[in-house]
Amino acid sequence: MSGLAAGAGTDAASLDLALAPVPAEQVVDGSPRAGSVELGEIGGIEIGVWEHTPGVSTDVEADEVFVVLSGAATVSFDDPALPDLELRPGSVARLTAGMRTTWTIRETLRKIYLAP
Question: The domain that contains 68 carries what CATH number?
Answer without folding.
Answer: 2.60.120.10
